Amino acid sequence: MNPRKLSGLQKDALRLYRDCLRAIEKKPEESRARFQAFARHEFEKNIASLRRTDVKAIEHLLRVGRRRLEQYQSPNVRDITIV
């Protein structure tokens, strides 16, 4: 059985999600669950609202996600809430 090949955008989205999960491991243990819930919520929210063929929107969200990840990786950010 041949696994389905992923597009470049799909690979980028998975890479961003994995990077988020890695960054969460560096946060205080008591807030990791909230960071993980936030990341999952953001990805699921955007999955539900996009079509796979909407390349410009996906690229935009990937850029926004990278910027947010950089902000949240700061040691000053110790906790997060979903609003």
Most strands sheet? none
Residue windows where pLDDT falls under 50 for at least 5 positions: none
Helical residues, percent: 55-70%
Overall outline: globular
Tally of domains? 1
Number of helices: 3
Order of helices and strands: HHH
Ends distance:
43 Å
Question: What is the strand tally?
Answer: 0
The secondary structure category is: mainly alpha
Strand content: under 5%
Explain the overall architecture.
The chain is an all-alpha fold and 83 residues long. It has one domain. The protein is 64% helix and 0% strand. The chain has three helices and no strands.
Furnish the topology, listing elements before pairings:
Layout: H1 8-24, H2 32-49, H3 55-72
Helix pairs in contact: 1-2, 1-3
In short:
With 83 residues, the chain is mostly helical.
Main traits of this protein?
mainly alpha, 3 helices, 83 residues
